[in-house]
């Protein structure tokens, strides 16, 4: 039997060979692909972590914002209609036919109406309100819409600057609810029409942009989505490479995967770069609205939204402050896109393109408030580190009064310029500190007579002899003994002092003596010889103690020349010295920062000051009342002539060789300290009366002054006293003077001024 051998088919063997080869290639190809993709996967994972960390953590380092005090409008206060209109315009209110919308005002021949904005500060929430203001006999009268009288209205605190530290970005953080819907609609229509439909990148958007740009012959639309623009601004540099573009695409997809469209559009609104203002980058639509229009974002019109959106494509090219024609053309291009996409009717479009660009009338914040911000920074440095202030977006509320600050700055520039020209003084400088007479809040600080912030704050740094500004505290030392009153006689005679072997012989400014005078005359007319005689009787050490108790913290050694103003203080220190007298004991320390809050309206710190003064209200009130004689009969008569119906206290001061010109003026609202001098301490040809007093007069003319209160506190009273004898004078008496006394020191007898037969 023979066996048969079965042969393998040739084709089958070939198929088996290629199958094994394919499986080998597939297997190892897959392994190699997987191994090769690990770096890419790791890179994507790293980008994912970066995106999440940036959005979940603090997104921006935002400097702290500094705000003024609210502006309180009180019925019965002296106001001019033009002044209120100017104030409303300064604070960003727009005038139209009516005041129905928040942030709008209207005016007639005799009245002004305004829809005042709501605001939140450390004292709580203040709702918006519509008020009607009328001006009867120079007094403000406030009413509601239904005619009910209103005691007070307030204009919201104004942002006066930032505390940057090392940061150079300016922005305001918006929540989604804060963003006006018209702005979202304009932005998405112009920059990313498919925003709500894509996943971070839009191929159709790229194609459409290319077509629109080609047909119009200019770049009217971009291919990048808003998400891609946000990624580029937040995470990437401006370099143009394929790697950077791939990174942008991947991060855009990741951003869309993790976050909602609302979160992305909100981030974009806060992040977008819109201008360079000096050394500061202006980021976000809210900050741009305040900078360019001086109003909150929600109060802008369609054409103003269109201008801001148009700037996205070229912040420097389309900056309306630098290139108004380009900006106008770009805004009109945006309006044309809105019309083409059915967002604007033809009639609305033709109205809007005819609107001019109306930018806010701005001064440089550091030029007006720079000196005040120095003081804010100095106070906060004790409680907050620089990094926190520069990055945490705190809201810092101060006591600055924007009307007082601007009036003080302008008065200083005007008068120093006029004095320099008339007196041929080159390099004359000045400083001014204005405080609330009652509570001691610093309302204004001027550190120089320069137009713009100079960097040297003389209100804090110019430490100079205060001259005769030392006299009211000295006379108060005498009143405090109970042995002297404003009527008490004192001899104005020459006196010599042997000080360490050297003879010091003071003189009056007019180089003459005036015999026996009353204390109120000696102080009002600034007699040096009477003052030094009084100081010797009271005791120089006692005078020094009074100065320290009133607030002089700078170390000094009391000697006779100190009684005539050799004491060296800065204008800020002089203001603190006078505050207890001006407030009649209601405040002693000066206040700058009131409170610090975060962006969620949580109070972080409130600043309270000591108000304790080691003198009675009666003594301080009597001292202040005596200072009203200075404008009445003394060296401040020029100020009284300018304000004949105003009751105010004052004191002029001049240092040796006319090196320093001082003035202290106290009205019902403000206590103001003014200094003029040369930085090199050279002599001048002006006194306190012919120099600093002029600055105070100018300032007071622009702040609607109120008189000091007529009533005196418990323990003090005012009497008509005969000049010839220490007796209370009857009404029929001629030679009499109205003087304030601490009870118990007043005359105990009276005169009828009838000759006895």
Automatic annotation (TrEMBL):
- Is this entry keyworded Zinc? no
Q: Where in the cell is it found?
A: Cell membrane
**Pfam families annotated for this entry?**
Transgly (PF00912), Transpeptidase (PF00905), UB2H (PF14814)
Protein purpose: Cell wall formation. Synthesis of cross-linked peptidoglycan from the lipid intermediates. The enzyme has a penicillin-insensitive transglycosylase N-terminal domain (formation of linear glycan strands) and a penicillin-sensitive transpeptidase C-terminal domain (cross-linking of the peptide subunits).
* Family as reported in the entry's similarity comment: In the N-terminal section; belongs to the glycosyltransferase 51 family. In the C-terminal section; belongs to the transpeptidase family.
InterPro entries noted in UniProt: Beta-lactam/transpept-like, Glyco_trans_51, Glycosyltr_51/Transpeptidase, Lysozyme-like_dom_sf, PBP_1b, PBP_transglycosylase, PCN-bd_Tpept, UB2H
For this UniProt entry, what is the primary localization, expressed as one broad class?
A: membrane
Q: What is this protein called?
A: Penicillin-binding protein 1B
Q: Which residues form the Bifunctional transglycosylase second domain?
A: 73-141
Q: Which residues cross the membrane?
A: 21-46
Pathway listed? Cell wall biogenesis; peptidoglycan biosynthesis
Which keywords are on file for this protein?
Antibiotic resistance, Carboxypeptidase, Cell membrane, Cell shape, Cell wall biogenesis/degradation, Glycosyltransferase, Hydrolase, Membrane, Multifunctional enzyme, Peptidoglycan synthesis, Protease, Transferase, Transmembrane, Transmembrane helix
Upper taxonomic lineage: Bacteria, Pseudomonadati, Pseudomonadota, Gammaproteobacteria, Oceanospirillales
Please list the residue ranges annotated as the Glycosyl transferase family domain: 167-337
Q: Which SUPFAM superfamilies match?
A: beta-lactamase/transpeptidase-like, Lysozyme-like
- PANTHER family for this protein: BINDING PROTEIN TRANSPEPTIDASE, PUTATIVE-RELATED (PTHR32282), PENICILLIN-BINDING PROTEIN 1B (PTHR32282:SF11)
What reaction does this enzyme carry out catalytically?
[GlcNAc-(1->4)-Mur2Ac(oyl-L-Ala-gamma-D-Glu-L-Lys-D-Ala-D-Ala)](n)-di-trans,octa-cis-undecaprenyl diphosphate + beta-D-GlcNAc-(1->4)-Mur2Ac(oyl-L-Ala-gamma-D-Glu-L-Lys-D-Ala-D-Ala)-di-trans,octa-cis-undecaprenyl diphosphate = [GlcNAc-(1->4)-Mur2Ac(oyl-L-Ala-gamma-D-Glu-L-Lys-D-Ala-D-Ala)](n+1)-di-trans,octa-cis-undecaprenyl diphosphate + di-trans,octa-cis-undecaprenyl diphosphate + H(+); Preferential cleavage: (Ac)2-L-Lys-D-Ala-|-D-Ala. Also transpeptidation of peptidyl-alanyl moieties that are N-acyl substituents of D-alanine
Residue ranges constituting the Penicillin-binding protein transpeptidase domain according to the UniProt record: 430-659
